[in-house]
Design goal:
There is one protein chain. Helix content is 12%, strand content 47%. It is mostly beta strands and 414 residues long. A six-stranded parallel β-barrel has the order 10-11-13-16-14-12.
């Protein structure tokens, strides 16, 4: 009996030790308690309709549908966007984000606090433009959806307009605005996007189609960046008659963009800018000029660089169209490709003007297609005289009309 009692007591002690060890193990494996986080502010509502949604207490998202817009595109959403724009600027004033200081003149513009106008994949019909306040502003994005021009859209206007008058700039401007993942469909009624006297505007991954006049229009100001976009009058009822992109904004860039079926692909009217990896295709919409052509209709369907200096054109691809450069000064054209297709189409590189200074044309493939055209495609036009670039290749030209010009390492193929 005594032995049996001792054995039972030993078993009880062993069970107690095991249970303590298991408890300690479980306690050590438990995660620390989660502290209650700061609650997110609820969405602001007016009546029963949500007008905006605050995410994480920082970024403000504006949904056009919440202001009465129709994301199916059946009804006109012009009034909804006007209300949204008014609310965004009013909220920025209330939130006291402060101002953005713009170096040009050290001016201050309204800081919208990184707000985003999110179309949420909707298609909105616009019978009038989306007009941003003429007072200017900054730190705002517009993204993810489609704007399509509707009946009665006013002639000569754009789906989106950021316009500052010349008398107000630079005291008022738009700065640090981003447009991304948008389809702008002019439906042969409207231009795409207009930036007049703006500073630091980014247009990325946008599809601009069916426009009238201009797809993307920039005039005055500084630093408008267009990238990864596609611009076309592809559904024009007759022949394309517009300009894909007007770059008349200094210190700008056009990068990794395709321009199809426009009368003129792009027009560079301001200096200190770069064009890189741009593909322009405008087959059959223009005719090749003759030797006696006065070049009044300068562009010829491809691209035109006006009488401005300090331009870099890198890795561009001109397919059945022409690049014309007027009075090139400190201009570099390198690693480009010019191809011709059918005999009825045009294409090539034309340098023209009374003076050329600091011009470099090198490492390009230029199809002359002399059997197709009266004049070879690669040529200069100096003092009313055509000079084939192939004849100048590898030479440095210095003189009264051509100063510090290098044309070399180009491949001219028929």
């Amino acid at each position: 009996m005594l032995v049996a009692g001792v054995q039972l007591l030993f078993l009880l002690l062993l069970l107690l030790l095991l249970s303590g060890a298991v408890s300690a193990l479980l306690a050590s494996s438990q995660l620390p308690p989660v502290r209650p986080g700061r609650p997110r502010p609820p969405p602001r509502t007016i009546g029963s309709r949500m007008d905006l949604l605050r995410v994480g207490g920082s970024t403000t998202m504006y949904d056009p549908a919440s202001f009465g817009g129709d994301p199916t595109g059946q009804r006109d959403s012009t009034a909804a966007f006007a209300k949204l724009i008014h609310a965004a600027w009013a909220d920025a004033t209330t939130a006291k984000h402060g101002c953005l200081t713009v170096p040009a003149g050290c001016i201050n513009v309204t800081n919208l606090g990184g707000a985003i106008i999110d179309l949420r994949g909707g298609t909105f019909r616009m019978n009038s433009p989306v007009v941003f306040p003429a007072s200017g502003g900054g730190n705002l994005g517009v993204q993810d959806g489609t704007l399509r021009a509707g009946e009665g859209f006013p002639a000569g206007r754009f789906l989106i307009e950021l316009n500052i008058s010349a008398t107000d700039w630079p005291h008022q401007t738009f700065v640090d605005l981003t447009f991304s993942n948008l389809v702008l469909d002019g439906d042969n009624l409207a231009g795409g996007l207009s930036c007049v006297n703006c500073d630091h505007v980014t247009i990325d991954r946008c599809w601009v189609m069916g426009f009238q006049g201009f797809g993307i229009y920039t005039l005055g100001g500084h630093e408008v960046y267009v990238s990864n976009s596609w611009v076309s009058q592809n559904n024009h009822p007759t022949h394309p008659n517009g300009t894909g992109i007007l770059m008349s904004c200094a210190d700008s860039s056009l990068i990794d963009t395709v321009i199809f079926d426009t009368r003129l692909g792009f027009w560079c009217g301001a200096g200190n800018s770069v064009v890189s990896n741009v593909h322009v295709y405008n087959s059959g919409h223009v005719t090749w000029p003759t030797a006696n052509d006065t070049f009044d209709a300068a562009p010829f369907g491809g691209a035109y660089i006006g009488d401005k200096g300090q331009m870099r054109l890198i890795g561009a691809y001109f397919d059945d169209c022409t690049l014309v450069i007027d009075n090139p000064r400190r201009v570099t054209v390198t690693d480009g490709l010019w191809l011709l297709g059918e005999a009825t189409t045009s294409g090539g590189l034309i340098l023209r003007g009374a003076e050329m200074r600091g011009l470099t044309v090198r490492n390009n493939y230029i199809s002359t297609a002399a059997s197709f055209h009266t004049n070879a495609s690669a040529r200069a036009y100096v003092n009313s005289t055509f000079i084939l670039l192939a004849e100048l290749d590898g030479k440095v030209c210095d003189g009264s009309t051509a100063d510090s010009v290098f044309i070399g390492n180009n491949d001219y193929a028929d």
